[in-house]
UniProtKB/TrEMBL annotation:
Protein name: Putative Ste24 endopeptidase
Residues covered by region (Disordered): 420-441
Sequence ranges assigned to domain Peptidase M48 in this UniProt record: 211-415
Keyword entries, A-Z: Endoplasmic reticulum, Hydrolase, Membrane, Metal-binding, Metalloprotease, Protease, Transmembrane, Transmembrane helix, Zinc
The species this protein was found in: Magnetofaba australis IT-1
Biological processes annotated in GO: CAAX-box protein processing
Amino acid sequence: MSDIISITPLGGIILALLLAQFALERLAAWRNLRAWTDAPPPPFDQTRDLPTHRKGRDYLAARERLGAISSAVHLAALLLFWLLGGFVWLHGVAAASSGPIVVGLLFIGALLAADALLGLPFSLYSTFVIEQRFGFNRSDWRTFVSDRLKGALLGVLLGAPLLSALLAFFLWAGDLAWFYAWAAVIAFSLALQYIAPTWIMPLFNRFEPLADGPLKSRLQALCQRVGFDIAGLFVIDGSKRSSKANAFFTGFGKNRRIALFDTLIEGHDEAELEAVLAHEIGHYKRRHIHKGVAIGIAHTGLMLYLLGLALQSPALFAAFGLESMPVSAGLVFFAILFSPLEMAVGAAFAALSRKHEFEADRFAAQSVEDPGALARALVRLSTENLSHLTPAPLYVILSYSHPPLHARLAAIDAMESHSARSAQAQPPAHVATQGIGDSRA
């Protein structure tokens, strides 16, 4: 490699930000582990026994230890590679190829491959040691290897053309390069959202239409009742990899679909499954998908605009030891620079996501005959997944896309109490009232 890199003023700022990010993440994780109570707090003491609660604490501790080691190794590798002139050396190797786009693909591709290889041991340990020890893992070696090979192939087939386009824009499109890049990323993302449910996701999981029967009839009736048209209800073989249960909404237009994990169907009754489906529909009916796409588009545009400015800054390249200003290296350096700052953006997105989850819960509780079914489903999922019942506020702010369980249950309980009071306040049937029809959502 090249000689040891001298720390420039901007390099010192970047180094300090990276260390601060690591310290904040570890502090949040430590406080989150300390927040685990010795026994299940009320009202969970009625639904989670002490052995299960202690098992959940041990599971969290094991995952946090692995996370701390993984983060430390990745940060140390980045700093050593940077300060020992690794970026300068790698760009020199890649520059032996012809053409700036090929050079960029080789430079960035090598860094992504190295990062994937560095993270592989931690992924293996997480899957086949921690998840296995606590009874969650159902994946075998063949599935594990197949997933990573498919992911790498998709990364090349989909990522390389997009990256080539971005490099070309910032190389030759002048001051409007960021705008053309923005348009390309938007088009790519929307196309991916459209084709993912039918072309990409089935490469990893099997999607089968929900079988005819009482459950399907009940769920279809819910869709009709709330005015939700959908291409289909599917069962996904989540048990192929984990015993954890989930459900999700994906796609848009004619390709939108809701998938229920087979583990979810196995562990919940029809009322709970209806409430879970109503929650997923709530995200669409409250336009959370559209809002998320719009915010993502705006965020991407801002980042690409700032990237365009950063690519014109010799100080950024000098901070990593480069005298020249290759676009491919600038993309990487910009990502490193903004990684700590993105924590604040990520926290804002997480806060918005938690707000959306409350709204989806409200929609679900108002759309089913048994609002308590959603609460029962959430409690059961929390117990099955060994979830943290009292997470630390700092950890929630930084990492939780969903509200803590106690907050969701309190909101649902408040809705039920409000509905009960409203029902008691209704006038007798013979008293005339003014209304505009059925008040149910």
